């Protein structure tokens, strides 16, 4: 077929069915635009859908090698379907909605690792929607080398995608489309000039290349954080060469101080449950803080606050323990909503931090993926307060300035009789993204806790250095 003739026919059809509009609009990437392309309407025009799929096939796909097609949700899905049928290649579908249950897959369809998937998209501006689909497909072990597009708005999307090794073929650039409409007197010279001028001046923001937080060394991450405790903790870890947090779950203050005296030099953080101490006195805290000073570690009170903001601010700064006075950081549940963070933000002084609980280590806990995601979002509003998350998975958050504190760790995988689940240092650091590793009974109940703390410290640090070297096999 005569491709240029068919392309002209398509351009005019798109104009006729209002898939290309001229006026004042804002794109998905937040850019003001005098021209808007909305292909959602094509489902009402089967002849236009057929023409698009024929042109994509002839112009862009015939020569390509691939095993699957995947449309970027949602507008490109019907086109991808037509192309799947035409090429007799299977289709994959990416779920766009947040997954409510852990078992729901991001990619639907049958595929094998290493197979090649071709992306179909209607319009690219920054290229970020295509990149999201590419990222999900790559997570499944699929190869993605090429995307075929109906319209390239010429605002940086092509360059962004090419720099991520996704090659682009498009039916039209915006300039080509405008020229066809001008030639056929569908738009005025002024409108055409406005659009061309706009394209020259307005480029889509380049999506920031995503850094894998777990590959950055602690000292680099110390520079990125807005929370003073995270900065100190990253720095302590880097200088003392330890990412071990001792969870000192003993009920006698003398035993706690005795143990901390022995292992203080090997840890970056000591985690307390102050309400289990049977002989609490203010002097106990004075001595604990002296050890913290001497050995250069921070103190985390694992209080897991979970009440309304007003109550939590009282629990935090009043009462027998006056936690606000001495704990460098505390653990907090997101369950009651943002008020709990507002309360702590107001009552904590500037050199304090919060670890927000995004996941738990215990078997059968009721935290869902949606809860975790909402927790991470909530934290983003309080960068100066939040030190990091208590969580179990690398994918839980991306921000390299925050710290992943992971409990449930022993040298061998196991469980206790009350549902605590233990993973190994290798698993939590190399696979699950842990930055600070909480060990309680693994050290506290050992015959020689000091020697055992050294074993943990060395093993954990080895895993961390392997991780940041990037040489994971
Ligand atoms: P263990 O002896 O290593 O099992 O102690 C783990 C500590 O971490 C203990 O103080 C718990 O209260 C704490 N913890 C946990 O184990 N799992 C979690 O998800 C959270 C805290 Br949050």
TrEMBL record:
Binding-site residues for substrate, renumbered to this chain: 249, 271, 361, 420, 440-441
Gene3D superfamilies: 3.40.50.2020, Aldolase class I
UniProt key word Kinase: no
SUPFAM superfamilies referenced in this protein's UniProt entry, alphabetically: PRTase-like, Ribulose-phoshate binding barrel
Pfam families, per database record: OMPdecase, Pribosyltran
Name the UniProt record assigns to this protein: Uridine 5'-monophosphate synthase
Keywords: Decarboxylase, Glycosyltransferase, Lyase, Multifunctional enzyme, Pyrimidine biosynthesis, Transferase
Keyword tRNA processing appears in the UniProt entry: no
BP-aspect Gene Ontology terms: 'de novo' pyrimidine nucleobase biosynthetic process; 'de novo' UMP biosynthetic process
Source organism of the structure: Bicyclus anynana (Squinting bush brown butterfly)
GO molecular function: orotate phosphoribosyltransferase activity; orotidine-5'-phosphate decarboxylase activity
Domain Orotidine 5'-phosphate decarboxylase per the UniProt entry, residue ranges: 243-454
